[in-house]
Amino acid sequence: MKKNIFYAQSGGVTPVINATASGIINSYLKNKKYFGKFFAGKNGIIGALNEELIDVEKENINQIKLLKSTPGGAFGSCRLKLKSPREFQRILDVFKAHNIGYFFYNGGGDSQDTTNKLNEYCKSQNYSLVCIGLPKTIDNDLSVTDNCPGFGSVAKYIAVSTYEASLDVQSMCQSSTKVFLLEVMGRHAGWLAASSGVLKSNKKDAPHIILFPEKTFVQESFLKKVKNTVNENGYCVIVASEGIKNSKNQFISDSGGKDSFGHAQLGGVAPILASLINKSLKYKVHWSVADYLQRAARHVASKIDVQQAYTLGMEAIKYAKIKKSGIMLTIDSKKSKKYSWSIGYTDLKNVANKEKRLPKKYISNDGYAITQSCRQYISNLINGEDYPKYKNGLPLYSKLRKILIKKKLDKFEL
Amino acid sequence: MKKNIFYAQSGGVTPVINATASGIINSYLKNKKYFGKFFAGKNGIIGALNEELIDVEKENINQIKLLKSTPGGAFGSCRLKLKSPREFQRILDVFKAHNIGYFFYNGGGDSQDTTNKLNEYCKSQNYSLVCIGLPKTIDNDLSVTDNCPGFGSVAKYIAVSTYEASLDVQSMCQSSTKVFLLEVMGRHAGWLAASSGVLKSNKKDAPHIILFPEKTFVQESFLKKVKNTVNENGYCVIVASEGIKNSKNQFISDSGGKDSFGHAQLGGVAPILASLINKSLKYKVHWSVADYLQRAARHVASKIDVQQAYTLGMEAIKYAKIKKSGIMLTIDSKKSKKYSWSIGYTDLKNVANKEKRLPKKYISNDGYAITQSCRQYISNLINGEDYPKYKNGLPLYSKLRKILIKKKLDKFEL
Predict the structure, then answer these.
(1) Which residues lie across from A132 on neighbouring strands?
(2) pLDDT confidence of residue B269
């Protein structure tokens, strides 16, 4: 009897994680003779623990087609790091009960660690399971792979939004707002903050200041730079990573006070920096926190990012066919003048729980900008547009029915 | 000698104010034999006071073409309400010195008031000036006109962004974020907050709660509604206008406390509501403040909005040719099943300093949603896509040289 497939989405979602799902499902449908059925975990790996397996072939084929251009995680995702042998054994029990022979885990560093551990656990229990990790993270912080699917689209959103907002503040600066500040994601790695820098071809261009989590935030030099920029330029555009810290290694976002309800302010480095600038330099400041808007912005996705995410899904089936286990697929760029890439793979051990921060050579000497090599790296990944279809002014995004297969086991306490 | 034209952009800019500029310039170029030269005020009406007149024909024709798809205010805008006769007299002096016979003012309610006053002032001084107001505001709060250019595109941005972020939180809600909150502009009128509601075709759809400035914010009923929504639905999406107030008529955004730098928190209703929900209901909350991103988001403009903005500019020249003065052009929709519109006009007195808030019939009985008639009204205005051209992954936006003509008068103290 041919073995079934189990696919799960993991961690924070991206504009293109469903493109990977679309790629793997389409390739499965073309290679059906080699496999049994295709199940997706409802809400990621929780679906395996709860024995909630979505029967993908019960979905409407048009909705499956729309997956490639739909943001979010269509089957549901979760934040859950598996730790106990009890959990691994449960997954094994569920996989045995449903004849699962292939496990695809679509996630970031933590998820690759889980895939690796499950692979080891199954080996130790003499259960044959092909375990393949599929990279996904807007933070672009996975090692070995040249870049991560999801990053290119969010980078494009940030670059486009920074460009647009900079034209706005430029229009208004003589009599009104002098500073615009955008907070972007990337708590530990500055790849997303860096992506705003692709705009800049000379000193006068926005963004004038990028604040990276890799660099200590120094209030005095920051304020001096803001002031000089406004004096020279009339206005100043700042892009700040949510994860910037002061010299005591404290998150700046944690320095918010209590509001009038008596509650500690929740996160948000932008309002804190905006207050600092306004009170210290008396400039009118506008600020924006992109948060989920950036992570879900499929409407302005990068074409190259969508292609890579989709191809990763397609290739996963190829490796499953030859029963290659214990690997994560990677995007390998070629050293050539024109950007080109292909799909490779690496041992899960090489990527599990590792974090790739922005390298020093990508940050300018003053710490507030990116270098030309960084600009080139990011430019390659935001190239091309891949618009969703629209109906009545709104994007047509996939709506799945998520029909579960019948359970065979007892309930598991999470 | 044929009279020259003076065009100025005013107030907060929009994704399509340059489309109006593009329309009026293109129509001028086709009708050149009727007019002298075309000047644009550098930074709006400040350009008239400072005698800083941009010679539009010195711009590269390709950059003029790109204006139609460029956000921000390409000639610069300003926030300045003219009050003193000294200011009106200065404008008259500048207009006389440069043979200006036509004044087009592209702005909101305040600007229409200024246009009206300048029109009256010139009459009283026996100076013949054709004064025409061109509507512009993302807030959609001008009276007489059926809608305002700029609103449709920002409404589309908000509707699309809310839809996308709702898919994100829906994916994550079982094990992580339960509430997503988006703050949008519209300090006095709820049109932009309302625009998120076009998504919703049944009770379960996002957004689950819209907070309008027209409705008093009541903490208890709001928290109850959030809790019930999460219980029924697994997650809750909230869109809040920046201008919501409590029963004491205080802005909720003013209830932020001091941060660790000792500064009062600057604006932002989203972080305050997020803290309130988190502390009261213990849900993980994500929040976003769109701010300038929404107002500058030309990359996801509404096609109908761009068409209306452009056509307004074209029609302005038609009215100038017949020397129709003291009017603001309007967008008049026809009462028919399929949405259709045409350009009309109204006396400036009818629009100056008036504000059109969201009518009662557009807000649901519980105060947290829009009605079907509101949904239809907004749907008409977000229809169709009008993408900018892209190069190397970024939009191609217009870059003007803004070459000023030679000054003839003494300096004026602003």
Answers:
(1) A104, A327
(2) 94
A129 close to A113: Cβ distance less than 8 angstroms:
no
- For residue A271, the chain B residues in CB contact (below 8 A) are 256, 259, 265-268, 271
Cis peptide before A15 (omega within 30 of 0): no
B306 & B236 share domain? no
Q: Decide if B167 touches A, using CB distance below 8 A.
A: yes
Q: What is the mean pLDDT of residues A75-81?
A: 93
Residues B147-184 pLDDT 10s = 999 999 999 999 999 999 999 999 999 999 999 999 99
Residue B399 is classified by DSSP as -
ipTM: 0.97
Per-residue pLDDT tens digits for B355-413: 899 999 999 999 999 999 999 999 999 999 999 999 999 999 999 999 999 999 999 99
pTM here is 0.97
User: B220-250 as b/e, with b when 16 or more CB fall inside 10 Å?
Assistant: eebeebbeebbeebebbbbbbbbbbbeeeee
pLDDT at residue A258, rounded to an integer? 59
Regarding whether B309 and B271 lie in a shared domain, the answer is no
- Cβ within 8 Å of A, B 110-149: none
Total domain count, chain A: 2
> In the block, which residue shows the tokens 């005591």?
A248
Spatial distance between the Cα atoms of A13 and A71, rounded to a whole number of angstroms: 8
Provide the CATH number for the domain around residue A241.
3.40.50.460
* Chain B residues 254-293 with a CB less than 8 Å from chain A: 255-261, 263-268, 270-272, 274-276, 278-279, 285-293
Cβ separation B72–A176 shorter than 8 A: no
| Structural domain boundaries enclosing B264 | 151-295
Write the CATH number for B144.
3.40.50.450
